[in-house]
Write a structure and sequence with these properties.
There is one protein chain. With 178 residues, the chain is of the alpha/beta class. The protein is built from 6 helices and 7 strands; from the N terminus they run αββαβαβαβαββα. Strand 6 and strand 7 form a beta hairpin. It is elongated.
């Protein structure tokens, strides 16, 4: 009996190895960056950037198509796309900014405000996602990322900084959805 007890840890280890190996053979490890496209937009409430009042994203996006842009002051590519976001604002496109994890040690509310003062504020509303939970629910893989939301549904997603061509295509799509 004691002989079997000495082999029990080895048997358990082999069984776990077989279990994990079988799982790995049938699991797709690739991340689908567009996994949330075509699905309902997350019903999230975040603090408004300047007042910290709880604000429901659906209330901001309920009156027509909007772009939801995740950005941060510490994000270099976010600064690169700022002129395209300003062009979208000038074209009449409503953009909601989500300040993503802009907290110490990487950033702060003052740094975010300085970022917007320096590059322009294209946002109809700004929400704070200090803990990154909204980003997780939207399925972001990094910042900047921009989502086209209409009628409570995510219709499109752009990963990385917007180029002029990306911004023009999004503007056309938003304007046709109105």
């Amino acid at each position: 009996m004691s002989r079997w007890l000495t082999f029990t840890p080895l048997v358990v280890l082999v069984a776990l190895g077989v279990l994990f190996g079988a799982y790995a053979l049938h699991h797709d490890p690739r991340v689908d960056p567009r996994a949330t496209v075509g699905k309902p937009a997350p019903d999230i409430t975040l603090p408004e950037f300047e007042t910290a009042l709880p604000t429901r994203l659906a209330d901001l996006s309920g009156s027509g198509p909007v772009l939801v842009n995740f950005f941060a002051s510490w994000c270099g590519p976010c600064a690169v796309e700022a002129p395209q976001l300003m062009k979208l604002k000038q074209a009449g496109v409503r953009v909601i900014g989500v300040v993503y994890e802009d907290v110490p040690p990487r950033g702060s509310q003052a740094q975010t405000q300085a970022f917007l003062d320096r590059l322009g504020d294209p946002f109809a509303a700004k929400l704070s996602d200090a803990e990154g939970r909204a980003g997780i629910e939207f399925g972001i893989t990094g910042v900047p990322e921009t989502f086209l939301v209409a009628n409570g549904k995510i219709l499109d997603k752009h990963t990385g900084p917007l180029t002029d061509q990306d911004a023009e295509a999004l503007a056309r799509r938003v304007l046709t959805l109105r």
